[in-house]
Amino acid sequence: MQPIIIVLIILVVLVFIALIRTVQVIPQASAAIVERFGRYTRTLSAGLNIVVPFIDTIRNRIDLREQVVPFPPQPVITQDNLVVNIDTVIYYQVTDARAATYEVASYIQAIEQLTVTTLRNIIGGMDLERTLTSREEINAALRGVLDEATGKWGIRVNRVELKAIEPPTSIQDSMEKQMRADRDKRAAILTAEGIRQSQILTAEGEKQSSILRAEGDAKSAALRAEGEAQAIRTVFESIHAGDPDQKLLAYQYLQMLPKIAEGDANKLWIIPSELNDALKGLGGMVNIPGLSGNGGNGGNGGNGGAPANGTGASPATRPAATPAPRREAPPFDKD
User: Fold this and answer.
1) Angle at the Cα of 151 (from 145 to 156), degrees rounded to 5?
2) Cα(first)–Cα(last) distance of the chain, in Å?
3) pLDDT of residue 305
């Protein structure tokens, strides 16, 4: 009985192993290559798959999702004989599991080497300055070459990126000095432009202010002159309209005398010739001796026979005072 039990146990184990090898579960976004006696049979897609146990074998399981592979820095010589280190990143996706398995031994290594050689060809036709400023152009050219070369391997290159472009240390120092000099130059130019613009604006402001001030002074002087002319015209018209007599004029003369004598610096002041006639008229009005027409006689008694007018002529021989001609006001231009 024991041999029979052992055989049954062996059969059960074989059946279990056969079931395990028969049923193959493939995850989503994955594929499996099936070979029968070493020859490609089919590609298993995602889900539950049945294969012939001990005859069909799973050769390779491939991830169909997009993959990202960074490559180490590679030394590349530019057109102007400068060595730069370039880091690249490749985004690729397997589109044909069979071609990726049988057309190339290691598609990762093949992509890396193809990237290096293509990058050297592209950078070899550019100088350093163009290399540093033409990343998009390099990426597009590199992606086109890789996509065309890897198409037969069942791989699609979706994107190629240059992570870093590192020139030599001496070149970096020279570039930093050049950039610093350029920045200092631009800063000096901007400062000079600012000062120039500020001076221009200041000069324009002063010019405009001077023009406006001159216009204001001119208008003020014109208005002041017009006001004074109008005041003189009004006073002259009022005087003629009132028709003042000799007595009023004499009184106005007497009121103006203190104003003429005002000030400590007034050592000499002039009395108008019309003041004598005004005083005579005022004396006759208030009957003051010496201020009327015969006031010369009264003055003789006070100074021992000396004439009152101080000229040495007697009142009898002094000619009669001739009334001053009436002055007409000059015409004013109303305009």
Assistant:
1) 85
2) 152
3) 38
